[in-house]
């Protein structure tokens, strides 16, 4: 039974499988550098890791729904897994499930029906119908990359070029007339940090986080013909679009606002529960909105609700802190809060700053709120998709 979907071919699926395998192994091996697997290999995974990988692949592509789940263990390797997934999708092609990075909590599955994804894809295909090539730096196993560098090029019948191995400086220099560059704000920030000119008629799309006006200005100065920012989340897929940092976002055609609930939206024709917009928003009408601050949820430390956002703000008040991130440690790290701090350029000695921050917070926060571990670096850690990333804290003697 054929699905009729042009993206379900082994050649197109293999990059998604590779990215999913790489991300899964990275979670299973915290603190280690995990190389991308070759088509014939699986990153030297052991038997327990192979079980985890087969489960992740089955969950994402719903291979269990077709009854072919056992083949993921019987036929191992990226090529074989891709072929099994294509065979499975020919029998069952109703949904896919993405897993959040866990950057703002525990990783969680987000299931989307193919019908819903096709609604968004129709919008994107109309918006970018004149593009001749897609140049991407997004992981394909997250929803942004899946839509733009897996489904969209197959729908438009154009090639996709993965430039993640070239580095930000080469991204814009590699463009050709008619390209659509798919990236995230942090990557575009680096790509435009040195003056560069793009080819004629190049479009850029960005998502996963707010794109600062300065990045828009530098892209325009580089000769980018048009730019689109997509607002959405793993739980909802795309929600809104805008073409300028001065404009509000407009809801995509398949969404409508639930007027009596500020953060609620619902798909047209959907009789189910409304979805929640992941941020505070200001509605300017029925279909236009501005995005406000992130909604920081509480985490439990020793049975007490603690707000990482409050701890971060206390850190930012210290004169030697340029930026900071605060999150809950993993279970194996100790279950307390941890902080990643970007010192100001004139700060000398991480060890001294570590002691200063502990004393600083002791006078401002409750003991349960004070991070047990401080890590330092030149920039906050982010994933390949440009989202806030976790960092691994190794246990120290005496902890």
Automatic annotation (TrEMBL):
InterPro entries: AMP-bd_C (IPR025110), AMP-bd_C_sf (IPR045851), AMP-dep_synth/lig_dom (IPR000873), ANL_N_sf (IPR042099), ATP-dep_AMP-bd_enzyme (IPR050237)
AMP-binding enzyme C-terminal domain ranges (all copies): 314-387
Domain AMP-dependent synthetase/ligase: 75-243
One Pfam family cited in the UniProt record for this chain: AMP-binding_C
GO MF: acid-thiol ligase activity
PANTHER family: LONG-CHAIN-FATTY-ACID--COA LIGASE, NONRIBOSOMAL PEPTIDE SYNTHASE PES1 (EUROFUNG)-RELATED
Protein name (database record): 4-coumarate--CoA ligase
Species per Swiss-Prot/TrEMBL record: Thalassobaculum fulvum
Species classification: Bacteria, Pseudomonadati, Pseudomonadota, Alphaproteobacteria, Rhodospirillales
């Amino acid at each position: 039974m054929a699905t009729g979907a042009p993206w379900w071919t082994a050649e197109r699926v293999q990059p998604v499988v590779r990215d999913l395998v790489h991300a899964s192994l990275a979670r299973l091996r915290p603190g280690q550098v995990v190389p991308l697997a070759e088509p014939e290999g699986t990153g030297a995974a052991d038997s327990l890791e192979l079980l985890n990988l087969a489960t992740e692949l089955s969950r994402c592509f719903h291979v269990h729904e077709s009854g072919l789940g056992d083949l993921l263990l019987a036929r191992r390797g990226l090529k074989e897994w891709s072929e099994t997934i294509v065979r499975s999708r020919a029998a069952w092609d109703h949904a896919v499930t993405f897993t959040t990075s866990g950057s703002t909590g525990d990783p969680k599955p987000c299931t989307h029906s193919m019908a819903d994804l096709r609604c968004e894809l129709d919008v994107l295909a109309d918006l970018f119908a004149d593009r001749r090539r897609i140049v991407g730096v997004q992981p394909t196993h997250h929803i942004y990359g899946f839509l733009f560098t897996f489904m969209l090029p197959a729908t438009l019948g154009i090639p996709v070029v993965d430039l993640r191995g070239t580095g930000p400086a080469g991204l814009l220099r590699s463009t050709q007339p008619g390209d659509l560059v798919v990236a995230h704000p942090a990557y575009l920030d680096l790509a435009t940090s040195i003056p560069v000119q793009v080819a004629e008629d190049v479009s850029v799309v960005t998502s996963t986080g707010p794109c600062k006006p300065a990045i828009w200005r530098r892209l325009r100065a580089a000769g980018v013909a048009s730019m689109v920012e997509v607002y959405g989340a793993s739980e909802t897929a795309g929600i809104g679009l805008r073409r300028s940092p001065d404009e509000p976002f407009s809801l995509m055609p398949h969404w409508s606002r639930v007027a009596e609930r500020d953060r609620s939206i619902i798909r047209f024709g959907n009789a189910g529960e409304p979805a929640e917009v992941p941020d505070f928003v200001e509605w300017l009408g029925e279909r236009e909105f501005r995005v406000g601050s992130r909604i920081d949820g509480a985490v439990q430390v020793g049975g007490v609700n603690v707000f990482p956002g409050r701890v971060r703000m206390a850190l930012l008040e210290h004169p030697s802190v340029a930026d900071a991130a605060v999150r809950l440690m993993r279970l194996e790290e100790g279950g307390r809060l941890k902080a990643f701090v970007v010192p100001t350029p004139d700060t000398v000695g991480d060890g001294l700053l570590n002691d200063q921050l502990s004393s600083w917070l002791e006078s401002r926060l409750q003991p349960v709120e004070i991070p047990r571990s401080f890590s330092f670096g030149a920039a906050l850690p982010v994933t390949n998709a440009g989202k806030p990333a976790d960092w691994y804290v190794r246990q120290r003697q005496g902890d």
